[in-house]
Amino acid sequence: MSEVYAVRRTRLRERCNASGSTAALVSRPANVRYLSGAAPEKAVLLLGRTEDVLVCAEPPDDRIPHNRPDEALRLHVMTGIGGDPAVEAAALAVAQGVDALAVEEHHLTVTRHRAIRDAAPPLRLTGVAGAVEQLRVVKDEEEISCLRIGAEIADQALGELLESILVGRTERHLALELERRLVDHGADGPAFPTSVATGPHAGRPGHRPTDRRVEEGDFLSVCLGATYRGYRCEIGRTFVIGTAPADWQIELYDLVFSAQRAGRESLAPGAACRDVDRAARQVLDSAGYAEALPVLTGHGVGLEIDEDPQLTPAAMGKLDACVPVTVEPGVHLPGRGGVRIDDTLVVRPEADGGPELLTITTKELLAL
């Protein structure tokens, strides 16, 4: 992996040099990890003129091999307590003879930006914009492998929950059980707070579990994800509690399933992001649910659960191969509940079989 990190840093350095900066300071945690491997909390990365340095407030925990930073980096551990690694890195840049330093202005607070400027007045601070985030959009096969394993863990945790008795248990209890199962099966932890929604809550995006208990006849929607070696995936499914779903539940579920399938089938290298959103959205819109739709159909995933690209009506840009995204349309009807179906897929060309589905739990409407 050391060569992979070196190539990533070289690509960023080339972008910075092209804009007139001889060095770069990376402070956003996911970006630091992308360029250096695992890093302690609050660590920053200096892409210097003479060497690259990982600046840490405390030494890395190297007991787990995949949690160690890239060995090609020089490790600089601060000696004082309460100092800012970003400020320390700026001072190191001055010592290397750097005159222009590109910083992640979209991540730094005004106070932190001012502290860097005050600590290293010879430096001319420029912006690196979202250069690292742009590099992170297309994943290599090692990254996709981590997402694939995370998806397998999430599928396994969800499948085990469905085999248990659900009636009478609270949303909160079920969410906690799912998160425990994720860790039991090898995840670093949940990719985001697990959402379990029942009855009138079902299908609501980002629902926070409550003490409402599962009842017969409920829709039950679940959205969870696993983090594996830093990479985060997402899966969402909707079920019915009881022996048989009502007619309106079948109708709504089939509609959302059709929309989700349309979105999945439109994933291809070169496809416009807004067209993927439109493919799923128009199925629901034409059925009269325009006012009940979420603001997006999907988004990228990786070291963060919500990355570029964004699959929205106003999205710009096109999809590339090897970009993992979610497709997650849904409908929530206030007071009644709703349906959400959510998969993580990797964009692949038709010659390679089309989009690769990572989350494989059945999308059949099960009565639990």
Automatic annotation (TrEMBL):
Q: What's the Enzyme Commission number for this chain?
A: 3.4.11.9
**Looking at its record, which EC class is this enzyme?**
hydrolase
Entry-linked Pfam families: Creatinase_N (PF01321), Peptidase_M24 (PF00557)
All residue ranges annotated as the Peptidase M24 domain in the record: 146-348
Keyword Protease in the entry? The reply is yes
Swiss-Prot/TrEMBL keywords: Aminopeptidase, Hydrolase, Protease
Any one Gene Ontology molecular-function term assigned to this protein's record? aminopeptidase activity
Provide the residue span(s) of the region labelled Disordered: 191-212
Q: Which InterPro entries match?
A: Creatin/AminoP/Spt16_N, Creatinase/aminopeptidase-like, Creatinase_N, Pept_M24, Peptidase_M24B
Q: Name the Gene3D superfamilies for this protein.
A: Creatinase/methionine aminopeptidase superfamily, Creatinase/prolidase N-terminal domain
Give start and end of each Creatinase N-terminal domain.
8-138
Q: State the name under which the record lists this protein.
A: Aminopeptidase P family protein
